[in-house]
Input
Amino acid sequence: MAIPQNFASVVHESPAHRPDAIAPASLASLAWDDIRFFVAVAREGSLSGAARQLRVEHSTVARRVGALESHIGVRLFDRLPRSWALTQEGEALLAPAERLEQEVLAFARAAAANTADQGTVRVSAPPAFASHFIVPLWAAQAAQGDRWPGIALDIVGELRSANLQRRDADIAIRFMRPTEPGLAARKLGELAFRLYAAPVWLTRAEADWHFLGYSDAPGNVPHQQLLAALAGARPFVLRSNDLTALHNACRGGLGLAMLPDFMARDDAALVEVPGDGRPVMREVWSVVHPDVRRSPRVRAVADALAEMVGAHAGRLA
Output
């Protein structure tokens, strides 16, 4: 892809170099794949943050940024002990690089929308929902016949919200209505969170109960807020950002936990602890970028996920 004229002009006008210091042929050979490493480090402020975003080793990030600096003859970052800070030249180049990013991503989305109905579809979903709900149902349906010939599913279990503008995923499953502008969202259903425990806890005084909580502060997450209110001054003996870890700790008798029905309701080692305000209902949403939604294979997977949630709503609530 050709580099926009304003990108080239900013490089030539860098205060550390003469206007003719970089040959036009050198600029013309710049590749977006190098520039995206610069943008990622600038956003994250560190090699490790950029590496997580790009899903590469931090040494790869350092090498690619260094190669870009050598290519254009401009030092983009000051290497500090705990961060990488943009130099004045780097700050001048960030805005045109981000504009280039938007053009590249728009091209990629348009290309995805116009490709054949075969290929890989990446789905981002909360880890426990991916492993305990989506994957078993997808496997069961696929075993009955080739419903989706030529389509491979790439499931990414992650707690963060995938950036669909940057094509982190083709489809994102979320437990709340998306607020980002420019995305197409469809409500698939609702799931219930209830208070569960090993039966032994119901033989003990409520004042002696122990709780299993989430690593993050409750924030605006309803079932975490309720759990914090229920526990009050009673102790949390384990915290985790992994629902599977909380589920295993709960069934092992370590304490009481707010768990989703699709994990805990059919677990013979657990019993529901009823009470006011329970269950806590969460909405399940499927989110795609409108450009990508036109892809036949993305549309097929999105429709299949909607059918699964609808057909198995009883497992969720």
Q: What stands out?
A: The chain is about 45% helix and 20% strand. The CA atoms of residues 184 and 288 lie 5 Å apart. Confidence is low (pLDDT under 50) at residues 1-25. The radius of gyration is 24 Å.
